[in-house]
Every structure is written in C-alpha cells, then in structure tokens.
Amino acid sequence: HKTFTTNLPIAPTSTYGGQQYEIRVHIEQEPRTGNWWLVVNGGIAVGYWPKELFINLCEGGTRVSWGGEGFSGKTKVCPPLGSGHMPDGRYDHAAFFRQIYYTTGSDTNHTPMAVFEHVDKSKVYGLKNDKYIDKEGFGYSFTYGGPGGTCD
C-alpha cells in the first residue's frame, strides 16, 4: 500500500493525558492462498506474510497475542514503551488495545476467555488488564507500557 507501510511511524501520535489517536489493526488468513494479511482501518491491506513463513499456521492458528515489545540489544537499556508511563487504568495515560477479539473459520467474532498475561521486565514495563469493559467501543481491553530503563 502506498500510504501505509510497515516501516513508517504512525502519525499523528497520542499525548499523555491529551488527544488520543487510534489505528484499527486486523490480521487475517486469506483462504485461497493461505497468506496472512495485515489490514488497517477497516480495509486497507498493508501487506502480507507468505504462508511459508508460518508452517504451523497453514490452516489457521490456535493462539493469539496482543501487546508491545521493547528491545534493548547489547546496551541492556530497555526503551520507553507506549507513552513512557506505567499503566494506571487511564486510557489517555498508556498504550492500549481495545475491542479485542478473534475470528474463527465461520467468521464468528469471539471475546478472549482464557488469557495469559506476561510482562517479562516488570521493573520497567507494566500491564493492566481490564478484561471486558461493558462500555461502548471498549469490549475486551488493556493498557500497557512503561518508562524503560535498565532491564537486567
């Protein structure tokens, strides 16, 4: 796609306690080819991962993950994640996912039930799982992020 590519930053970006911006992300397996497509904002096909990259996902998947990742490399200093603040329950203070669901082969949307929460550097990153929020536009939701720092 000419406007959206995987190597460009998303702009504009949200500000802590201020204006929030969102992008809708959907990953789907194309039935005819078996390739996995990244689709944003309700229908913009950004690109795909060839099915050969995911040998164990030839006929769909059994597990799904959502979240963020900070990479320290050789420096052992983790970068800030999300807004750079630990999640405190406010969706204008941290990175977030909302309206989380997965779709089965019958095109039926399902809310996650058995959820495994994982934060591997809890001194510098956090997660607040709100689970299902019965409020328009939220559904299954969580906030995450952190300031980063020494991640030994």
Short account of what is shown:
With about 150 residues, this protein is mainly beta. It has no helices and 10 strands. Strands 1-2-3 form a 3-stranded antiparallel beta sheet, with no helix packed on it.
Task: Give descriptors for this structure.
152 residues; mainly beta; 3-stranded antiparallel sheet; 10 strands; 0% helix; globular
Describe it.
It is a single chain. With 152 residues, this protein is an all-beta fold. The chain has 2 domains: 1-62, no CATH class; 65-152, no CATH class. Helix content is 0%, strand content 28%. The protein has no helices and 10 strands. It has strands spanning 25-29, 36-40, 44-49, 77-78, 95-97, 102-103, 109-110, 126-133, 139-145, 149-150. It has a 3-stranded antiparallel sheet, with no helix packed on it. The protein has a 3-stranded antiparallel sheet with strand order 5-9-8, with no helix packed on it. β6 (102-103) and β7 form a beta hairpin. The N and C termini lie far apart (39 Å). The model has no long low-confidence stretch (mean pLDDT 88).
